[in-house]
């Protein structure tokens, strides 16, 4: 029996309409005459979804008793007996009630498919088993019901049901997904815009990968070798050299310019196992490409260009990134090189980028100044071999294999050998070749042979000319090497000086970063900037990097004075004199950076003093008005009570006493906030952190507000938090008092709490006028009142103190809009170590 077709509507988040889309598909199939039944669909009380069930045949559910309750599950036997063409099965990851035919619903679906019944089902991206950890890190909720990825991947069709976070939140706010009493909690927790955006990205990427698998299978089945540029896929060819890091970064930037770009780094080694690549460098490049979101591949192939092109076409790449060849000009006689060959054979469907790179010595160091290293150690060795062994080998060949060529031809061949030695090894190997060649010419080829005498004076001139030409060619090659070395060195120095000048203008580099640059550039173990107050004072370290930095200039291998009382000290090796010029520029820059840092510190101190002056000025203004107002009221009431001119009734006396009590309470509140703000400004707040239950602290913080103005919802399953109880109580009290002040009398303020990942959030929700986005940050500044609040309403310190105390205990306090109007204060607190737990069904333990 043929297996049934499987179609899945995959939702980016709950509520996007996947069940509605499945039922719409069922109605279309029924209209076409398809035998379609509803095996199991849960509408969750959503009226629009429930209406879509009308007109569709529904298989009665199987009733199962479990723990004194009766639950309805899909009746697999009834569906198999009915044998429809298509069965609708909602909620694929659902866990069946114990006693059901299978433990999971996807296992029920597998039975229906095996029986030849087509199945249309639904699932959300967060229910895929491989994404469980990612979803938990985003939403803070661990999904208990999951479905193996392979089940979904085997589906014949996967249709993504998507919706923008803003549209989904509007649906939620309108009551189209959850009941009204759950809307606020859902919008504030799981259905945050950031959570929904992240889930949407997960769904799009997962489906895109599945589509890519379909495309790969199709190309393989139909043997399509031509590249289809469905999305940018960039292959980076690596040689194992340091330039590979530049190529990887450049390819990553190219991939970012296109939608869904992908980077694949490939290293091709020969089948004989011989390679000049550094395993350490390849490991570094593998880590780099993976950190940038790409993949690393190792391919074996003797023909590097062909293997690279085969790999690129096999992965349907659109671009290849290669580095410009590092070969010398003369080496091109052996072939055009990998880059040119790949560009020639790539065809019209592959773009090849040749990226320039500059390698000057090791890392970012300057070129080595040693004389013999100008042409490279390997070239010098080959030069000596050609200069000494070449004439000897040539003598043997001319004597035994091709005798009788004539002295002129012999001299030209020896001159060629000398030129080769000069090209390879420079001056000294060429001079050695000229001396050895002259001696061999005289002994073996100049009559009379096998003697050191020369019979014909013309031969003397010929040997002298030979020796002169050899020396001249060697000198020219050596001079070219010198100029090349100088140009490379000057270029490196100019780049370093340009870097320093740019940092001076931008003011970006810290002292430690600059010293680390010095240490890396010159290959030192440590670098330190030392200073002292006068000529006899001891040296102190202003900044250092590396192990065991120098504590005095005498202990350093290299020290560069900067002024009279500042010096840059390096340890590790002795630098040549030509490097000290650049090092002096580094030292001067280090002095500038040090001065800039100290000036910045003084500027920060001045700013703090200015802020303190501003606060003191505002405090004086507050004392002059806000504190004098309740004092004046108390003074007037007391004076009236003590007056003998008027006989006050008991009602009048009670009114005066109430005014005195109200004024005293206002004074106590204002003075308390002023003292709290002064503690925060002076840094004398020292929290005592310990494990605390929120249901022990938050009710105590509400003692200053009427009971009918606050609704409290603190779940009993909340984890413990690490806070200072007193500071938390003051912070919550100030936030709640502020919310009650601005909330309408008939709209109580809601104080709720919930656990999300490794934190607990306390949300204070009011239905007041709200605060515009541009003013949300200002309401936490000292002495700020929102709108046209009267001055008697306070000095504007409540929220500033609340945020200061929240940050002192390691939490945060932010403002958000309340769905439907109002302001929500979100107080985030760290959970106690080891107390984080999964998000279960919560019941309210503390209500008010």
User: Approximately how much helix is present in the residues?
Assistant: 40-55%
Shape: flat
- Whole-number count of domains: 5
Strand content: 15-25%
Radius of gyration: 41 Å
Q: Treating each run of at least 4 consecutive H or I residues as one helix, how many helices?
A: 23
Walk across the major sheet and give the strand order. 3-2-6-7-1-8
What oligomeric state do these chains adopt? single chain
DSSP summary, beta strand count: 25
Biggest β-sheet strands, sense, barrel = 6 strands, parallel
Low-confidence stretches: 360-373, 788-793, 835-848
- Assign the CATH architecture of the largest domain: 3-Layer(aba) Sandwich
CATH superfamily of the largest domain: P-loop containing nucleotide triphosphate hydrolases
Can you tell me about this structure?
β9, α10 and β10 (262-269) form a beta-alpha-beta unit. With 848 residues, this protein is α/β, with parallel strands linked by helices. The protein has 5 domains: 6-222, Rossmann fold (3-Layer(aba) Sandwich); 233-355, Rossmann fold (3-Layer(aba) Sandwich); 377-482, no CATH class; 508-684, Helix Hairpins, CATH 1.10.287; 688-830, Heat Shock Protein 90 (2-Layer Sandwich), CATH 3.30.565.10. 47% of the residues lie in helices and 16% in strands. A 6-stranded parallel β-sheet has the order 3-2-6-7-1-8, sandwiched between helices. A 6-stranded mixed β-sheet has the order 23-24-22-21-19-25. It has a 5-stranded parallel β-sheet with strand order 11-10-9-12-13, with helices on both faces. InterPro entries: HATPase_C_sf (IPR036890), HATPase_dom (IPR003594), His_kinase_dom (IPR005467), HisK_dim/P_dom (IPR003661), HisK_dim/P_sf (IPR036097), Histidine_kinase_KdpD (IPR052023), KdpD_sf (IPR038318), KdpD_TM (IPR025201).
């Amino acid at each position: 029996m043929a297996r049934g077709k499987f179609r899945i509507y995959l939702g980016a988040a709950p509520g996007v309409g996947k069940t509605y889309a499945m039922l719409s598909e069922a109605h279309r199939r029924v209209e076409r005459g398809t035998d379609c039944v509803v095996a199991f669909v849960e509408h969750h009380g959503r009226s629009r979804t429930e209406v879509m069930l009308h007109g569709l045949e529904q298989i009665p559910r199987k009733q199962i008793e479990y723990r004194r309750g009766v639950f309805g599950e899909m009746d697999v036997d009834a569906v198999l007996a009915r044998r429809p063409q298509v069965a609708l099965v909602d909620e694929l990851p659902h866990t069946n009630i114990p006693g059901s035919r299978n433990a999971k619903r996807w296992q029920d679906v597998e039975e229906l498919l095996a029986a030849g019944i087509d199945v249309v089902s639904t699932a959300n991206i967060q229910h895929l088993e491989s994404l469980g950890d990612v979803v938990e890190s985003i939403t803070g909720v661990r999904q208990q019901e999951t479905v193996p990825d392979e089940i979904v991947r085997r589906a014949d069709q996967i249709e993504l049901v998507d919706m923008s976070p803003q549209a989904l939140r509007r649906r939620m706010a309108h009551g189209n997904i959850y009941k009204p009493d759950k809307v606020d909690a859902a919008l504030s927790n799981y259905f945050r815009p950031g959570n929904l955006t992240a889930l949407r990205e997960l769904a799009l990427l997962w489906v895109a990968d599945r589509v890519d698998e379909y495309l790969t299978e199709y190309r393989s089945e139909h043997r399509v070798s031509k590249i289809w540029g469905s999305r940018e896929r960039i292959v980076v060819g690596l040689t194992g050299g340091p330039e590979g890091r530049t190529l990887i970064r450049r390819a990553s930037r190219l991939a970012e310019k296109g939608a869904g770009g992908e980077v694949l780094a490939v290293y091709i080694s020969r089948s004989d196992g011989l390679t000049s690549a550094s395993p350490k460098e390849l490991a570094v490049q593998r880590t780099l490409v993976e950190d940038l979101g790409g993949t690393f591949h190792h391919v074996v192939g003797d023909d590097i260009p062909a293997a690279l092109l085969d790999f690129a076409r096999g992965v349907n790449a659109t671009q290849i990134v290669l580095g410009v060849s590092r070969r010398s000009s003369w080496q091109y006689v052996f072939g055009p090189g990998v880059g040119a060959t790949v560009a020639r054979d790539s065809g019209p469907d592959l773009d090849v980028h040749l990226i320039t790179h500059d390698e000057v010595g090791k890392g970012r160091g300057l070129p080595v100044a040693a004389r013999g290293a100008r042409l490279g150690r390997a070239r010098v060795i080959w030069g000596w071999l050609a200069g000494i062994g070449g004439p000897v080998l040539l003598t043997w060949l001319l004597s035994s294999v091709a005798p009788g060529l004539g002295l002129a031809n012999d001299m030209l061949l020896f001159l060629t050998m000398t030129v080769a030695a000069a090209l390879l090894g420079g001056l000294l190997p060429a001079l050695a070749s000229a001396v050895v060649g002259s001696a061999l010419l005289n002994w073996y080829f100049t009559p009379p042979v096998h003697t050191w005498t020369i019979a014909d004076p013309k031969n003397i001139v010929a040997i002298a000319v030979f020796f002169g030409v050899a020396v001249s060619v060697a000198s020219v090659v050596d001079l070219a090497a010198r100029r090349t070395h100088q140009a490379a060195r000057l270029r490196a120095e100019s780049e370093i000086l340009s870097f320093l000048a740019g940092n001076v203008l931008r003011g970006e580099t810290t002292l430690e970063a600059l010293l680390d640059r010095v240490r890396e550039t010159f290959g030192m173990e440590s670098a330190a900037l030392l200073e002292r107050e006068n000529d006899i004072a001891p040296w102190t370290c202003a900044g250092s990097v590396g192990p065991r930095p120098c504590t005095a200039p005498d202990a350093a291998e290299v020290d560069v004075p900067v002024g009279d009382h500042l010096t840059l000290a390096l340890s590790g090796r002795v630098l040549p004199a030509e490097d000290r010029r650049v090092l002096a520029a580094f030292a001067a820059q280090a002095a500038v950076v040090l001065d800039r840092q100290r000036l910045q510190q003084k500027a920060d101190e001045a700013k703090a003093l200015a802020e303190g002056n501003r606060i003191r000025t505002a405090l004086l203004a507050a004392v002059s008005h806000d504190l004098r107002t309740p004092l004046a009221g108390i003074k007037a009431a007391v004076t009236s009570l003590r007056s003998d001119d008027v006989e006050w009734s008991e009602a009048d006396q009670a009114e005066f006493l109430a005014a005195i009590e109200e004024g005293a309470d206002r004074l106590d509140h204002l003075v308390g906030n002023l003292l709290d703000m002064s503690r925060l400004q002076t840094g004398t707040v020292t929290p005592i952190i310990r494990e605390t239950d929120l249901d022990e602290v938050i009710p105590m913080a509400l003692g200053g507000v009427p009971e009918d103005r606050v609704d409290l919802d603190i779940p009993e399953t909340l984890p413990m938090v690490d806070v200072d109880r007193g500071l938390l109580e003051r912070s919550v009290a100030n936030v709640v008092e502020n919310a009650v002040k601005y909330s309408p009398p008939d709209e109580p303020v809601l104080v709720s709490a919930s656990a999300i990942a490794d934190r607990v959030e306390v949300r204070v929700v009011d239905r007041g006028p709200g605060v515009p986005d541009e003013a949300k940050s200002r309401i936490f500044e000292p002495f700020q009142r929102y709108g046209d609040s009267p001055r008697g309403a306070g000095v504007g310190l409540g929220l500033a103190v609340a945020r200061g105390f929240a940050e002192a205990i390691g939490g945060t306090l932010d403002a958000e809009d309340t769905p439907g109007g109002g302001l929500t204060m979100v107080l985030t607190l760290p959970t106690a170590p080891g107390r984080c737990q999964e998000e279960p069904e919560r019941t309210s333990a503390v209500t008010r």
